[in-house]
Amino acid sequence: MAEQTLTDAERKVLANIEQLVPPTPTMPGLKCGYEKAIDHLPLPFLPPQFFEGMYATMKPPVFHYGWHFKRADLAAAAADHNLLAKRVFAPGYQISATPQAAVDMDVHRTLRNIHLHLEDKGLNTPQLQYACVRVDSRIMISIATNYTGWLPDVQAVDALRDLLGREDEPVWDLDYESSGWQKCARNAPRVRYRFE
User: Fold this and answer.
1) Which domain covers residue 83, as residue numbers?
2) Is the overall model pTM greater than 0.85, yes or no?
3) Rounded to 5 degrees, what are φ and ψ at 188?
4) Average pLDDT for residues 136-150, to the nearest whole number?
């Protein structure tokens, strides 16, 4: 794509991605969480060099693909489809002063219910998870990572977006615990994925 045909938004995304590329002898690359990495996130797409297995001696930081969310919003969306799983508390257990639906929700069982609901419709979301990320609400409903070797198809993304009551597109955000690009031995056992 020629530089003059890019919109301002596309130029900004490309400039952000250039700040996150792997280190080279002359350029340090992404230092997740140390050098204003969150200024460049989230990303609407992830270039191929960020997927595991693209470099023989470098492992990329972990990125999640999905939507930023708050627990109460997830609880409300799941309840609308009768997929909310509640936690069971011992009698007399005191609950803190947060919204009741969010406190009572069992996040992992709720996401499992959503996954099974989509699976019944013939849609595959095996990597559906609740992830801690670097920006926005710091919580994300993740449907894939750059290490999973699998990206969801358009129908699964659309169905999940509808179920969650979202209108925006999923984005890529950095895992909260990611430590950036890491060097590894060329002969270290690794899973290499081919993303299409």
Assistant:
1) 27-89+96-183
2) no
3) -65, 140
4) 85
